[in-house]
Amino acid sequence: MVSATALAVPSHWAAMLMPRIHLPSGVAALAIWSLVTPGGMAGHPADWMLELTVRGQRIEGAPVAWNSRQVVLLARDGQLWRFAPEEAADYRKTADAFRGYSPAHLRAALMRELGSGFEVTGATHYLVAHPSGAGDAWADQFENLYRRFVQYFSVRGFSLTEPPFPLIAIVCRNPAEFARLASQEGIRASEGLLGFYSVRSNRIVVYDGNQESRVQGLGEQDFATVIHEATHQMAFNTGIHSRTAEPPVWVAEGLATVFEGVVDGGASADGPRQSRVNRARLRDFRNSGGASPSSMLADMVAHDRAFQTSPAAAYAAAWALTFYLVETQPARYWQYLARTATRPPLGSYPSTQRTADFAASFGADWNMLDARLSRFLDELSVR
Predict the structure, then answer these.
(1) Which of 160, 53, 45 is nearest to 98 (CA)?
(2) N or C: which end of the chain has fewer CB within 10 A?
(3) Residue 208's pLDDT is what?
(4) How far are the Cα atoms of 134, 156, 171, 304, 361 from residue 373, in angstroms, in the given order?
(5) Which of these ranges, 64-68, 219-223, 279-283, has the smallest mean pLDDT?
């Protein structure tokens, strides 16, 4: 939930109503800091928009988080800009409410950015830049994922919000293009990486290794990647996760792997549970030992390190715990997601607080949780 709370504008923000001026950097730092920080405390999302220059680029958007060292601005194209207050200059208030760019504006900007060889097609919630000749197939595919995502979580009582701008996906034509776009986000395009979602740019970037398929013929792994990264993007844009107070890794990856199974199995949101099982993740979980000792669950909730040291096992465990919680305790799971998404922005998330937040929703009896999770998983089949 990036910008869900509107605040009354404090009186000392009235300077935003003055005509645009250009200030020396030292003065600008003090001025913009006075505009976005009431009483020196970390700020919460504002609903108004301003236009300013940062690092030589003109940006328009809403400040969504700030402290004495950093301002985070949600731009009208969905990207997050992070900058020190003293980097901002030549600013003015432009509107009393945030408004994303129109699909037509964003489509034209994407075409200018990516150049020839791409088409940009749209659906209700998406703009997809893809190799020429694919028609509406990619946009339709993403829109279908969005509908199923909303249905799955709405049936379980989750209250989702509408994204304030079109969600953007880029389908690369070749590995070099994918590697270039990944490097712009500070991501190394290692072997086997087929896609990613960037919290900063709010974009999905994927590589279709089977260009002749035009979506319908995507291999199983390619399609799972599209589902996984689309889930991240949808969760960060519908109020499930916050882009300024990111959730524990197991929460984000667990939810994405759960939705992989929902879509891949062709399941309905309220059909038999077995039809929503992510068989690949269940298989990985059982191959990693098939047990979920309470110490492992507690460590995954408190820390992210398992995703670096034993990624396959960590992803499988994140799927197992998330699937159990969302299928058996959806109200408590939604409460827990809300707790992680409404943390103060820009701060750290210490392991002690992570554990306390989990316990507040599900209790602190790790042995009992382990026993119930094990019984739940024993009833599932990989077939």
Answers:
(1) 45
(2) C
(3) 75
(4) 43, 19, 38, 20, 16
(5) 219-223
The C-alpha atoms of residue 373 and residue 356 are separated, in whole angstroms, by 20
* pLDDT above 80 (res 353): yes
Distance CA(120)–CA(113), nearest Å, equals 12
Q: Give the single-character DSSP code of 59.
A: E
Question: Are the C-beta atoms of 118 and 172 separated by less than 8 Å?
Answer: no
Give the pairing type, strands 88-95 and 80-83.
unpaired
Nearest to 25 by CA among 65, 49, 52: 52
Rg (CA), the chain: 22
What does each C-alpha distance from 130 to 218, 274, 297, 314 come to in angstroms? 14, 35, 40, 32
Residue 210, both tokens: 């089977």
- Of 141, 338, 95, 322, whose CA–CA distance to 238 is shortest? 338
Distance of alpha carbon 373 from the chain centroid: 27
> Could you give the count of Cα atoms lying within 13 Å of 205 in the half-sphere of its Cβ?
24
Secondary structure letter of residue 236 according to DSSP? H
Residue 229 pLDDT grade (very low, low, confident, very high; cuts 50, 70, 90): very high
Distance of CA 12 to the CA centre of its chain: 33
- Of 98, 102, 77, the C-alpha closest to 4 is 98
Cα–Cα nearest to 299, from 248, 232, 245: 248
- Residues 140, 134 contacting (CB under 8 angstroms): no
For residue 256, the number of C-alpha atoms closer than 13 Å in the C-beta half-sphere is 24
Q: What number does CATH give the domain 103-237?
A: 3.40.30.160
- Reported as a pLDDT band with limits 50, 70 and 90, residue 33 is very low
* Nearest Cα residue to 248 out of 353, 170, 174: 353
Give 116's contacts (C-beta < 8 A, 6+ positions apart): none
pTM, whole model, 2 decimals? 0.86
177-to-154, 167, 213, 302, 362 alpha-carbon distances in Å: 37, 20, 19, 37, 44
- Specify the 3-state DSSP secondary structure of 175: helix
Tokens of 189: 């395009």
- Of 9, 45, 8, nearest to 243 by C-alpha is 45
Secondary structure class of 168 (helix, strand, coil): strand
CATH 3.40.30.160 domain range(s) in the chain? 103-237
| Tokens 């994922």 sit on residue | 145
